[in-house]
């Protein structure tokens, strides 16, 4: 029922008019064989017995059926082409909506999600092709039932004819299950091949790939992955085709047996024989269509199951609590634990990020700093413990509203191939236009003035290509567009900047945060440069997923622990 609703909804979204025409022409092709069979008996008997009345009635029925048979395919071809054009677009739009609307991003990193998403994308066109299924399926069953009753009227034993569909149906089900298992088994290989392809043609990776001379290896690896995927699916497809054809071969045998039975009966009129030939044909056609439809239903159910699974991920328990306009207490992490799969990354984190403060998080590579940030932005949920935003569990908050009140600059920033103005404005689309220019000034992206069209310069391969540091300054400007976010996160957003520029930038942000402390904004900075983080109100040291030290720069130096040691090393390096 849920699948039927999905298909009808999809058909309607493709276009109500087209959907209705497509349904009508498809249905007509199922009705015409029955109409033809019913007209044949009065026509043949009318001709033999010179009964004009029956002859005309039968003739009209046969003529109508033949007209439908001749005209319907023209409409069917037109509607099918139009449906195909639009349906893959509409299905893909729906999938994209589901995949990107999910409140968290963790599903993008789960192999199960990626495999299902890939299978769904591959089979999405099938959803569009099957929008008439909810109407066709009951119609074909009715056609089979009517034909069977009419046949049973001729010879009761002929009512057994449709039963031939049962073993064939079972065989077709086995074939589909085989195909489905193979698709899921092949999905990781396909995903690998796709990633290798994208990597090999990506301009960002081109230089490193050429310098390392690994393009041949990438091609070979791509070829291995596709071969593995094809081997799995081809074997399964071949076996399922053999199983399916055994089922189909039962039909001609049954048809021949039914006709012999009627021909051997001396009481049968020529009209009876004609009716039996046509009805047995209609029954066999209906039974094979049911078989065909059952295959489609199983395939569609597999695709729909992926779709519903994705939909469930996208709408998982959304929080509804309103987000405060400004923080008064701050954000508290209580005994927070997080693992990627079964790999623990954060353990027993207790932290109080006070409202209006600047907090720096330091720690060596892989300590868990970025993961902590992902938890703070609600991209991931902790496996245990809680994150309280002014006393309210982050999981209970309306995440969309919460994200609209965050600002963030990341080490892996996006290079938006837009104009400079647009690439910065996406940091806060509802903010007034002058926020964009203010943010660019704050990020000291002075190079913008030297670009050919200033703020309106198109960036990227179709316009002006920027240096790594210039792209990064635009990413920082993007993080500064929102005037009073609840939480500003700067996760190594300035790695391409020199240490002095980074320190000056953070000092400016910290001064601004202190000046506007009344708005309760929390600024979190992650940096490997101790010269930058020293001005933070609180410095948190993460080691192997645990908070080992926290305090001000002076407090941590006095303590003489990891921070003091690392600070001493870096200060020595710069002096
Ligand atoms: N998506 C992921 N799936 C599985 N493991 C991950 C994922 N992201 C990070 N990890 C692992 O979690 C650990 C912490 O990673 P994280 O990125 O939080 O560290 P970090 O302190 O920010 O490191 P860096 O300073 O290098 O940016 C690392 O061991 C990393 O391998």
UniProtKB/TrEMBL annotation:
Membrane topology: Multi-pass membrane protein
Pfam families for the chain: ABC_tran
InterPro entries, per the entry: AAA+_ATPase, ABC1_TM_sf, ABC_transporter-like_ATP-bd, ABC_transporter-like_CS, P-loop_NTPase, Type_1_exporter
SMART domains attached to this UniProt entry: AAA
Subcellular location: Cell membrane
GO molecular function, one term: ATPase-coupled lipid transmembrane transporter activity
Chief localisation class: membrane
GO cellular component term, pick one: plasma membrane
Keyword match Signal: no
Keyword terms, alphabetized: ATP-binding, Membrane, Nucleotide-binding, Transmembrane, Transmembrane helix
PROSITE patterns: ABC_TRANSPORTER_1, ABC_TRANSPORTER_2
Keyword hit for Mitochondrion: no
Residue ranges crossing the lipid bilayer per the database entry: 12-36, 56-76, 124-146, 152-171, 236-261, 273-291
Listed PANTHER family: ATP-BINDING CASSETTE SUB-FAMILY B (PTHR24221), HAEMOLYSIN SECRETION ATP-BINDING PROTEIN (PTHR24221:SF646)
Protein name according to UniProt: ATP-binding cassette subfamily B protein
Lineage, broadest ranks: Bacteria, Bacillati, Actinomycetota, Actinomycetes, Propionibacteriales
């Amino acid at each position: 029922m849920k699948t039927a609703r999905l298909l009808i909804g999809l058909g309607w979204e493709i276009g109500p008019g087209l959907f209705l025409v497509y349904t009508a022409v498809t249905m007509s092709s199922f009705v015409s064989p029955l109409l033809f069979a019913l007209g044949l008996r009065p026509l043949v008997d009318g001709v033999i017995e010179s009964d004009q009345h029956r002859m005309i009635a039968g003739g009209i029925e046969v003529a109508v059926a033949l007209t439908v048979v001749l005209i319907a395919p023209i409409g069917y071809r037109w509607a099918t082409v139009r449906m195909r054009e639009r349906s893959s677009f509409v299905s893909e739009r729906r999938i994209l909506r589901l995949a990107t609307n999910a409140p968290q991003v963790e599903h993008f990193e789960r192999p199960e999600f990626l495999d299902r998403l890939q299978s769904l994308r591959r089979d999405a066109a099938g959803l569009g092709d099957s929008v008439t299924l909810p109407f066709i399926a009951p119609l074909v069953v009715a056609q089979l039932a009517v034909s069977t009753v009419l046949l049973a009227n001729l010879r009761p034993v002929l009512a057994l004819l449709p039963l031939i569909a049962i073993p064939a149906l079972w065989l077709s089900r086995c074939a589909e299950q085989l195909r489905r298992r193979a698709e899921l088994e092949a999905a990781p290989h396909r995903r690998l091949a796709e990633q290798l392809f994208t990597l090999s043609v990506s301009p960002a990776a081109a230089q490193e790939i050429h310098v390392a001379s690994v393009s041949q290896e990438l091609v070979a690896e791509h070829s291995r992955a596709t071969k593995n995927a094809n081997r799995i699916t081809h074997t399964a497809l071949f076996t399922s085709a053999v199983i399916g054809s055994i089922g189909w071969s039962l039909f001609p045998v049954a048809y021949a047996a039914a006709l012999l039975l009627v021909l051997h009966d001396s009481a049968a009129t020529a009209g009876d024989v004609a009716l039996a030939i046509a009805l047995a044909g209609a029954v066999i056609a209906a039974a094979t269509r049911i078989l065909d439809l059952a295959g489609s239903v199983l395939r569609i159910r597999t695709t729909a199951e992926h779709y519903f699974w994705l939909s469930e991920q996208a709408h998982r328990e959304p929080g509804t609590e309103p987000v405060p306009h400004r923080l008064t207490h701050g954000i508290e992490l209580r005994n927070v634990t997080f693992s990627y799969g079964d790999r623990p990354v954060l353990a027993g984190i207790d932290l109080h990020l006070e409202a209006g403060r600047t907090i720096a998080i330091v720690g060596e590579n892989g300590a868990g700093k970025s993961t902590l940030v992902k938890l703070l932005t609600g991209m991931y949920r902790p496996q245990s413990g809680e994150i309280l935003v002014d006393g309210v569990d982050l999981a209970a908050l309306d995440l969309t509203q919460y994200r609209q009140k965050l600002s963030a600059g990341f080490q892996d920033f996006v290079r938006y191939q837009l104009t400079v103005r647009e690439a910065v404005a996406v940091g806060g689309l509802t903010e007034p236009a002058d926020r964009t220019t203010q943010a660019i000034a704050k990020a000291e992206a002075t190079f913008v003035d030297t670009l050919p069209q200033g703020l309106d310069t198109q960036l990227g391969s179709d316009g002006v290509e920027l240096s790594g540091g210039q792209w990064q300054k635009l990413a920082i400007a993007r993080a500064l567009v929102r005037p009073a976010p609840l939480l500003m996160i700067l996760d190594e957003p300035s790695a391409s900047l020199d240490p002095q520029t980074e320190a000056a930038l953070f000092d400016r942000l910290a001064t601004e945060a202190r000046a506007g402390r009344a708005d309760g904004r929390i600024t979190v900075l992650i940096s490997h440069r101790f010269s930058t983080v020293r001005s933070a109100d609180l410095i948190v040291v993460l080691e192997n997923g645990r908070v080992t030290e926290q305090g001000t720069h002076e407090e941590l130096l006095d303590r003489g622990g990891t921070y003091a040691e690392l600070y001493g090393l870096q200060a020595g390096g710069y002096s």
